[in-house]
Specification:
The protein has a domain of 173 residues: TIM Barrel. Helix content is 42%, strand content 14%. The protein has an eight-stranded parallel sheet. Helix 4 packs across helix 5 and helix 7 packs across helix 8. The radius of gyration is 18 Å and the shape is globular.
């Protein structure tokens, strides 16, 4: 089957290694997740592939995303690295290939690497293409370069302490879906009093409230968890409809707290 839109939630695999990655992917799929997100830089594509293969879920029913690292952005490197990713993932295509980070200091021109990404799509290596960690200006540039070729998503950090409003709004304007990584702020949401209070009143967890808030903004959350109980709870968070008052209280937690901010990151909005 061909996916015309991103599934409403994904299973993130950042920092998952070895059997943890294998088991987490297999468990997530058995619970009903249909979107698995990995990256070349995570060093776990082979294990993610194992988890998918051993899950018994047909490959065509799974939306699989990987991301190309910034040292592979020259045309031939990009295509070759994607072939390598597919071999590790034990599949003939990914549903979505993303540029993980814009080229540091524009060392490789966006025209070159987005052109190569589009070539990879034409070759059938990726059903859809997209970007990650791109600013508003970079989204505009990407849109100009790709013309009519749709940018399926911009994957950026989104959680209650980093609402990333400018990027989310600008992406919407451009018709680009936003995928929100680290929706639980690497566990920090569990310690927040506002989220705890809203969660207690609803008899759910602070993590579920954070995911529900991300989803309420039209952003696709991709929480990472190795425990089936947490994976199930994250999935169930999509059923929580927050009130306007609750959303306002969570909106007020935004303090521009960025967790993924390497030295080569772009100048953020």
């Amino acid at each position: 089957m061909s996916f015309s839109a991103l599934p409403k939630i994904g299973m993130g695999t950042f920092r998952l290694k070895g059997n943890d990655a294998r088991d987490a992917v297999k468990s997530a799929l058995s619970l009903g997740y249909r979107h698995i997100d990995t990256a070349q830089m995570y060093g776990n594509e082979a294990e993610v592939g194992d988890g998918i293969t051993s899950s018994g879920i047909p490959r065509r029913e799974i939306f699989l995303t990987t991301k190309i690292w910034h040292d592979q952005l020259h045309t031939s490197d990009l295509i070759n690295s994607l072939h390598d990713s597919l071999a590790r993932l034990k599949t003939d295509h990914v549903d979505l290939a993303l540029i993980h980070w814009p080229s540091p200091d524009d060392e490789v021109s966006m025209k070159e690497y987005l052109g190569a990404l589009r070539d990879a799509q034409h070759e059938g290596l990726a059903e859809h293409i997209g970007i990650s960690n791109f600013t508003c200006a970079q989204m505009d540039e990407a849109k100009d370069i790709l013309g009519d070729a749709p940018i399926f998503t911009n994957q950026v950090e989104v959680h209650p302490f980093l609402a990333n409003r400018d990027v989310v709004e600008h992406a919407k304007k451009l018709g680009i879906t936003v995928t929100g990584y680290m929706p639980l702020a690497v566990g920090k949401v569990m310690e927040d009093e506002t989220l705890q209070r809203i969660a207690a009143a609803r008899n759910v967890t602070a993590a579920q409230i954070a995911i529900a808030w991300v989803a309420s903004r039209g952003v696709v959350p991709i929480p990472s968890s190795t425990r089936p109980t947490h994976q199930k709870a994250n999935l169930e968070a999509l059923e929580i409809a927050l009130s306007e008052e609750e959303i306002r209280a969570i909106d007020a937690l935004d303090r521009n707290e960025r967790i993924a901010n390497p030295g080569f990151a772009p100048a953020w909005d």
